[in-house]
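ZP: hey, is the NAP complex queued? I don't see it on the tracker
AM: it wasn't, my bad. submitting now with these inputs:
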Amino acid sequence: MKAIILKQVGGIENLTLAELPTPSIQANEVLVQVKAIGINPVDNFVRQNQFGVDNFLKPAPGEDTYVLGWDISGTVIETGSAVNTFKKGDEVFGMVNFPGHGKAYAQYVAAPASHLALKPANVSHEEAAAATLAALTAWQALVTYAKVQRGDKVLIHAAAGGVGHYAVQIAKHFGAYVIGTASLANRGFVQELGADEFIDYSAEKFEDRVKDADVVLDSIYGDHVLRSLEAVKKGGRLITLLAFIEGNIAQKVQEKEVFAHRLGVSSNGQDMQQIAQLMQDRHLRSYISETYPFTELPKAHQQVATGKTRGKIVVTV
Ligand SMILES: NC(=O)c1ccc[n+]([C@@H]2O[C@H](COP(=O)([O-])OP(=O)(O)OC[C@H]3O[C@@H](n4cnc5c(N)ncnc54)[C@H](OP(=O)(O)O)[C@@H]3O)[C@@H](O)[C@H]2O)c1
């Protein structure tokens, strides 16, 4: 089968088309013929950093062929002996083995059945492949940890990005009042997602406008999370995707009696099923700003690396 391997940690020129054996499956796995792949900032991070390879790809001892990627949508062509949730011909999507060696940049992927959900018939493979790592992150942040409820005021940073655009829709679905931050060019997009208020982060300090959020989802580097702690109300909830709750962040969290959690998204088929249901009912949609053919996957990395992606970037196989 065709796969894109990472020859060595570094630039996009290290992502190379290769011929690899089609994977064999374990009893708990299915073999998926991949139709579309979602690309995320972590793909870039792992490509460029040995630390990323060690911590997110986690290759098995002696394993020296790295195949990046975790987000797939495709068709089941074989099922392991212990799998009774899917059958040959089912269309499925999910985030495979994250953190771990997902090996998604390939024509065929061996995936634990417990990481997948049935793809709704009214959702394309591209839309489904997009709604995996990023949608799971939004779901686990807002639903699993922040336990978002009707009437909550929810501040979502990077509301126009992969995670953010799902987070706005999920928070609205749960009945929250949503404030999204992005640059002015994304105002209309964020409002169309359902946000009640928009803050252009380059023109205004969000913490000057928001001081009483029940929930803040922070996904920006640097001291941004300290500013988010200004925006969350006493006793509120803060979920971070980058900053760890330590040092002066932990001190401020304690002072404000905030529930704070640094999320590390993880593969979860039950969460995928919730996402699939929302997508089937059209309460959750993927916005795909660009789609690349498999051979141009390195260009997809380049686009995601800009940090300016609107919605998601997808590769078709
Ligand atoms: N811990 C975890 O499990 C986990 C999971 C998923 C993602 N992450 C991390 O979370 C971050 C976001 O992921 P993603 O997939 O959503 O990335 P993404 O799709 O690349 O995000 C791009 C978006 O970020 C927005 N943005 C950039 N700087 C901003 C700022 N200062 N304020 C508000 N918006 C800003 C951009 O909007 P404008 O163009 O309008 O500036 C753009 O739409 C990444 O660093 C990723 O690695 C962590």
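AM: back. Residues 2-131+286-316 form a domain with the Quinone Oxidoreductase; Chain A, domain 1 fold (CATH 3.90.180.10).
ZP: great, adding it to the tracker
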